Amino acid sequence: MDIMDDTAEPVHPHGDHRRSHHSDKFKSELITRLNRIEGQIRGIKGMIERDTYCDHVLNQISAAQAALNGVGKLLLAGHMRSCVVERIREGDPDVIDELLATVNKLLK
Amino acid sequence: MDIMDDTAEPVHPHGDHRRSHHSDKFKSELITRLNRIEGQIRGIKGMIERDTYCDHVLNQISAAQAALNGVGKLLLAGHMRSCVVERIREGDPDVIDELLATVNKLLK
Amino acid sequence: MDIMDDTAEPVHPHGDHRRSHHSDKFKSELITRLNRIEGQIRGIKGMIERDTYCDHVLNQISAAQAALNGVGKLLLAGHMRSCVVERIREGDPDVIDELLATVNKLLK
Amino acid sequence: MDIMDDTAEPVHPHGDHRRSHHSDKFKSELITRLNRIEGQIRGIKGMIERDTYCDHVLNQISAAQAALNGVGKLLLAGHMRSCVVERIREGDPDVIDELLATVNKLLK
Q1: Residue A18: inside a domain, yes or no?
Q2: With an 8 Å Cβ cutoff, are A69 and C99 in contact?
Q3: Of C1, C60, C81, D79, whose Cβ has the fewest other Cβ atoms within 10 Å?
Q4: Residue C17 has pLDDT above 90, yes or no
Q5: Minimal Cα distance from B80: which residue of D?
Q6: Residue A30: which CATH number?
Q7: pLDDT by residue (tens digit) across A4-17?
Q8: What CA–CA distance (Å, rounded) separates B38 from B33?
């Protein structure tokens, strides 16, 4: 369900023809942060393989969670400032339900 | 601060001589989950590069957060059942403070 | 800072002249939930006064947190469906920043 | 399920005979914080009745959530320092499972 490979695009009733339109600078900021998170995850794996004391590993997990939250907030901000505002102006009736479902998932 | 490479071990006042002692089965379960999370992070990067609609990307970020929470809970359980119980029985006075600091970080 | 009394209205640079315009049914749903949460908080106080075993009290705190999250999500939905959509249509430039600041606080 | 009145004690397979044994000072700190939270909840109800702009209400909900989290962390610390340590020393086999279930609820 939450497993994904690098090529498949999720199928979505309303949105699969939509594209985001972020600036290259914004995309590059997101990629940089995601690269760092990927490094953190790899580092956590290495710690487990080397039997690092769990408390250290748990602290690295907290750090990776905080970094991933940061990416989520940044992308949510970009999404709301561009796509959401635009679709509300166009009178699209589904955008708020979609946004609420997504924010509620982020709120857990 | 939360940047880490694959080799350096964090320095910790009390704990840097400590090692975890999880079963191979438990370690392999953690590694499997972390591999999947690494794939999710790489997938999210690919989605941003291909301008996938942000709402889809945000949903993948929620899924990766949930998966990382799952690893955190699993490791916390393993930590408490082994190291924490053992150190309390040995009368180690620092273990509860260390555990509370770590749980509070996971609780954000 | 987060202390408030029952009468004072918060002062807000842009928003202190604004009013929400929810239906009586929606308001009554929110009030009912908040009454229940108030009862939960009072119940937790009573448990502490009677030296109830902490694990029970912690579970009641989790239940009250979940109930308060529920009110937050419900109100956020009402807010986005009414005020936010309306202000975006009116071309109000501040509404997204205000909403993002609020969602980020709810996301902690 | 999460509804409670002021008198009934929750029934718990292992723990209903247990009592917490916190100092009066600690209990009074918790009660003071819970009184403040009760006031916050009452304040939020009043805001909704007076049609206060939702964004202000959402910010007060975030503040009440943070205050309730604070009580949860404080009580968890008290619980771990006293009951949990004691029961581990007594060799009680259930204490860690109980604690993990509770921490996982607090972690959502």
Answers
A1: no
A2: no
A3: C1
A4: no
A5: D96
A6: 1.20.58.1000
A7: 444 444 444 444 57
A8: 9
> Which residue do the tokens 């709301």 mark?
A80
Residue of A nearest to B58 (CA): A72
Residue C105 near residue D65 (C-beta atoms within 8 A): no
- Average of per-residue pLDDT across B46-58: 96
Domain total for chain B? Answer: 1
Per-residue confidence at D20, pLDDT binned at 50, 70, 90?
Answer: confident
pTM, whole model, 2 decimals?
0.84
- Chain B interface test: which of D92, D95, D107, D108 (most B C-beta within 10 Å): D107
The band of B16, judged by pLDDT with boundaries at 50, 70 and 90, is: low
Quick: pLDDT tens for D60-100: 999 999 999 999 999 999 999 999 999 999 999 899 999 99
Q: Residue D58 domain-assigned? A: yes
pLDDT tens per residue, range B58-101: 999 999 999 999 999 999 999 999 999 999 999 998 999 999 99
C62 domain residue, yes or no: yes
Residue C53: list chain D partners with CB under 8 A: 12, 15-16, 18-20, 83
B107:D104 CB<8 A: no
**Mean pLDDT across chain C, nearest whole number?**
87
- How far apart are the C-alpha atoms of D1 and B63, rounded to whole Å? 28
Q: Quick one: pLDDT band at residue A55, thresholds 50, 70, 90? A: very high
Nearest residue in C to D59, CA atom: C102
Task: Tell me which residues of chain D, numbers 14 to 53, contact chain C at a CB-CB cutoff of 8 Å.
Answer: 15-16, 18-22, 27, 30-31, 34-53
- B66 Cβ under 8 Å from any chain D Cβ: no
Residue B45 lies in a domain: yes
C82-91 in b/e form (b: 16+ CB < 10 A) is: bbbbebbeee
Place of tokens 């004391």: A53
Contacts of D16 (CB under 8 A, 6+ apart): C53, D9, D10
By the 8 A CB rule, do C79 and D59 touch? no
> What is the ipTM for the molecules in this complex?
0.84
Q: Is D61 exposed, middle or buried (0-12, 13-18, 19+ CB in 10 A)?
A: buried
Give residue A85's domain range. Answer: 24-106
Question: Are C107 and A77 inside 8 Å of each other by CB?
Answer: no
- The answer to whether residues B34 and A45 touch, using CB atoms and an 8 Å cutoff, is yes
Task: Return the residue of C nearest to A108 by Cα.
Answer: C107
